[in-house]
Structure formats: structure tokens, C-alpha cells
């Protein structure tokens, strides 16, 4: 762990970016003054965290990557599984967090992010008959708002929470009538954020998440009550 922390510190110190190769193994062994097994275990740990990709063969070695929320989703899933927490836990957390994110997004979102949000709303409208596209755009919409809040933690939290509570993964279906309702909710939220109305954005998101929870409670109560299990999470 200490060697992994030093490697990350050196990545930051050197200003390495995604795709950059780290020094060869022989150089790292000398620099960190550790054995080959310790170094390789440290690199493997960082690979599991999404910090590095270990490329095999000649000219391979550790390559810098950008971590995503996958490790956070795994850690949260395991913690919640050992608490025997139901999937409703994630829905309740989203209901508390996402309205706050929408409020901040109305105050902080850039023009480029607003354009991305509008693109998501329009794509969902144009592809409502395709549930795969619907699910992709649903996730994208909430991701853009979380990132647009200007708070990096919110971005990773929403990505992780959506990774755990993917309705399609746990068995929640979205018929076209429900997809249309979601699109209308997204449009209301977008319009409130685009007008920089923080309170309207908060209220619109509160209503949207509340509608989702009520729909799931009415149609799939047994799924929300089911305990979170790592093997059931994508």
C-alpha cells in the first residue's frame, strides 16, 4: 500500500496523464527500493483501482488510466451487503442527494454541460421506442447534472449509485408510457437548470426521483425490498 501511494504521488508530481507509460520495472525497483513481488503487487492493486492498466509483452508495462466510480460502487455494494441493506437504500439516497445536485447545477453548469444535457433530453425523446438508448440517456442525464454541480464527489457518487441501482439489472421494466413520463421530467429539470433557477431545479428533481420511487414501490415492491448483493450489481 505504501509503495502504491508513492507511485500515485509520483504520477501527480510528474504530471502524467492518461496513456502515459510509467518507468520500466528495473527503474521502479531501484527507485522504491523494494522486491519485485512487492512492486508487482502494488501495481496490481492500482490496476484494480483503475489507476493503471498493465500492458503485457514487449514495450508493455504500467500505463496511466483515469479511475472511474467502479471501485466505489464495489466498495459501497459490499458494505451495504454486509449491512443487509435493501435496494430501497439507494433510492432513498438518490432522493436526498440529487435535488441538491440539481440546485448547484443551476448555479454552476457551463454552457458546454448545458448543451450536453439538452442533447441527452433530445436523444431520449427521439429514441423513446428503444429501451437500451433510453437507459443510456437516463444515466447520462443524471451523470451530467452531478458533474455540472461543480462538486467532484457528487459526480462519483451518482455514477456509483446508478451502477448499483440499475433498474434493468435488478428487474425493473420501463414500458413506453413510463419512458415518456421520464422524458417529460428530464425536460422540466433541464429547463429549470438552463434558466438558472436553483429552487425550481431542486423541486423538479425532487419530483422526478419521487415519481421513480413511487413507480418502483407500486410495480416492484419486492425488488426494492430485496437485499443488495454484489453478484446482482453490474
From TrEMBL:
Ranges for domain HTH gntR-type: 1-67
Gene3D superfamilies cross-referenced by the UniProt entry: GntR ligand-binding domain-like, Winged helix-like DNA-binding domain superfamily/Winged helix DNA-binding domain
Keywords: DNA-binding, Transcription, Transcription regulation
Domain of life: Bacteria
InterPro entries hit by this protein: GntR_C (IPR011711), TF_FadR/GntR_C (IPR008920), Tscrpt_reg_HTH_GntR (IPR000524), WH-like_DNA-bd_sf (IPR036388), WH_DNA-bd_sf (IPR036390)
The protein's name in its UniProt record: FadR/GntR family transcriptional regulator
Species this chain originates from: Actinomadura vinacea
